[in-house]
Automatic annotation (TrEMBL):
Listed PROSITE patterns: TPR
Pfam families hit by this protein: TPR_11
Domain of life, source organism: Bacteria
Organism name: Pseudotamlana carrageenivorans
Protein name (record): Uncharacterized protein
Taxonomic lineage from the root: Bacteria, Pseudomonadati, Bacteroidota, Flavobacteriia, Flavobacteriales
Gene Ontology, cellular component aspect: cell outer membrane
InterPro entries noted in UniProt: TPR-like_helical_dom_sf (IPR011990), TPR_rpt (IPR019734), Ycf3 (IPR050498)
Amino acid sequence: MKTLFTLLFLCTIYLAQSQTIYKNPLGFNVKFDKTWKRLPKEVLQEKTKFIKTYMEYKGNIQYDACFQKIGNADMDYPYILFKNFYATTTNENEIEKLREFYTDKFGVNKVLESLETDKVKMELQIGKTYYDKGKQLLIFTYDLNLNVKGNLIAMVGFYVGKSATLQILCYTYADEFKYDQKEFLDIINSIEDNGMKTNMRDYLKKHDQAVLYYNEGLKQSANNNINKAIENYTLAINTYPIEDKFQLSEAYYNRALNKRKLDNFNGAIADYTKAIEFRPDYYKAYNNRGFAYLMLEKYSTAIYDFTMTIKFDNYQTEFTGMALGNRGIAKLSIGEDGCEDLKKAIEEGNQNVKSIFYEYCN
């Protein structure tokens, strides 16, 4: 049966190279219910291009961690951004100073003036403030008038006294303002403090070094220096702090991709398994691990992984079609009916299994 897999194998290799870069806020677990969905990074950046040009949104804001409410297609909902402050306090006096700082109209306007240009002027109105002493949660509301665009409504929340202070920024233009403070509170209250095992000084040092190794791995892999790529991903894995679960899962996933290029399927399986341990819903890792099992003719195990891919991807990306095709082939390989999976795979856009479908299912 392996000869039947060649075309599918090439397609899988190509698609599996695409990576999603999303960094969870340090020390926190962010869970959204099903009425919220992740907004693609490129869409967010396009929508925020104007604001990003004039305001302080830089690399330490988690652009990738943005969500919008699912609603009518023509409705823009607020965008949620997360930013870590690598310091924290439980001191009530310090918290009060923080509140005063972010509600000082004169001070905030001075900051805005430094961002103004000949074409862009800004005027700030400070709205309601909210403080939950028990949860040590601060919320501020702002109405920012941009003379060339209109009013920008923003809510800013701070978790203080946690593992690391987390800022949550929710904003939209006034004519798209379709949420209230309670909804923002619901969002913030869905964030759980996981605690930090690594002290902040060591975390920053290790994280930054691991990112260098990881990026070098990407570079070496792109240049087809497979062994060098594996070496750098290994260094990244050994350096990332335990809090960097997402980054660790990506490093294991990418090391597995390179091991598979060397036909080291068992090594790839081990790394995909680690990636799944760090991210249990990592559908790409399930699909690729299933494919490795398929190449080793471990069909029942492969079928399980493809089923998990479909479950977690839930028909959202091309990986569902890929997994349906792979699962159909695995079923045919052990004498089961895989034709329905192959048919669905084709319907999902996986044209690579057409020849197998027509040969075995007609």
